[in-house]
Write a structure and sequence with these properties.
By secondary structure, this protein is of the alpha+beta class. The chain is built from eight helices and twelve strands. The chain has an eight-stranded mixed beta sheet with strand order 4-3-2-6-5-1-11-12, covered by helices on one side. It is globular and about 45 Å long. About 2% of the residues have low confidence.
């Protein structure tokens, strides 16, 4: 049983040492809690649990603490991938929900698995998710100063459970000050993907990640016999011609944990019950 989580890319932790340390500590704490949870739950349940904890922590740009878009509203996206069942669900530009990843989890049981905008929000209300403002004073101050676009990020988790099954979950509050309606990579197979061989969660510039089909490429290459390192290196090399900005975490079916970013500033933590790792 192994778990790895990330807390975003090119965020405030790049320039603020105290924020960096706080994020590292929070990630390690959440990774350990999620690993303990994984002992008695499936990979799908564990990644939802971990990402919910990240959404509840205002240090990260997902759920509480999400960025504000150019029209003054917060819209969030999240997705869940069950690697064993090869089923993906997600919400895009959902509003006033505390935990978008939990709405994605409910959608996993429906035929229509990805909902966007008002439809996603309405679905959440119909399924007991009460209206909840995820805005914090810091984000409002950033928005009013038109600085929100400088502090973006995403959160994600990949888990391998006791049955050898893999799941991945990713949630984002957006890049900040974007055009309303903009679609991020987080609720697509470019930013969040898993199968029986590998699971991957991305953060970075969504447009670059989608252009590179990054998560799906890495998982496909591992499925075809690449090692995680080989799959990462080839896929990230393909981002260089467009100066792609991305970071990824992954676990394969052998229990190998791997991570890479194109511009080092991704914050992440992993835990397997004994060995812990926290970076940046």
């Amino acid at each position: 049983m192994k778990i790895i989580i990330h807390g975003g890319f090119f965020s405030e932790s790049s320039t603020n040492h105290e924020t960096k340390i706080a994020k590292q500590q929070a990630l390690l704490r959440i990774a350990k809690k999620a690993h303990s949870y994984l002992k008695s739950h499936t990979a799908v349940e564990a990644v939802v649990y971990a990402v919910s904890l990240l959404e509840d922590d205002e240090l990260f740009n997902a759920g509480i603490g999400s960025q504000i878009q150019s029209d003054g509203k917060i819209r969030m996206s999240a997705s869940l991938m069950d690697g064993a069942a090869l089923k993906m669900s997600g919400v895009i530009n959902i509003e006033e929900v505390k935990n978008p990843i939990q709405v994605a989890q409910v959608l996993l049981g429906y035929d229509d698995k990805v909902l966007g905008g008002s439809g996603a929000t309405q679905f959440a209300r119909q399924h007991g998710f009460e209206s909840f403002s995820t805005e914090i004073p810091q984000r409002r101050a950033e928005y009013e100063a038109k600085l929100a676009a400088t502090g973006t990020g995403t959160v994600g988790c990949v888990a391998l459970d006791a049955m050898g099954k893999i799941a991945a979950a990713t949630s984002t509050g957006g890049k900040g000050f974007e055009i309303p309606g903009r679609i991020s990579d987080s609720a697509t197979v470019a930013g969040n993907y898993a199968n029986a061989f590998c699971g991957v969660s991305l953060t970075g510039v969504g447009e670059d990640i989608v252009s590179g089909a990054v998560a799906a490429k890495i998982v496909t290459r591992v499925t075809d016999g690449f090692t995680l390192q080989q799959a990462f290196e080839k896929t990230f090399a393909e981002l260089k011609p467009i100066d792609g900005f991305a970071g990824a975490i992954a676990i394969d079916h052998k229990g190998t944990i791997y991570h890479q970013d194109s511009h080092p500033s991704m914050v992440f933590a992993s835990f397997d019950g004994e060995k812990e790792e926290v970076f940046n």
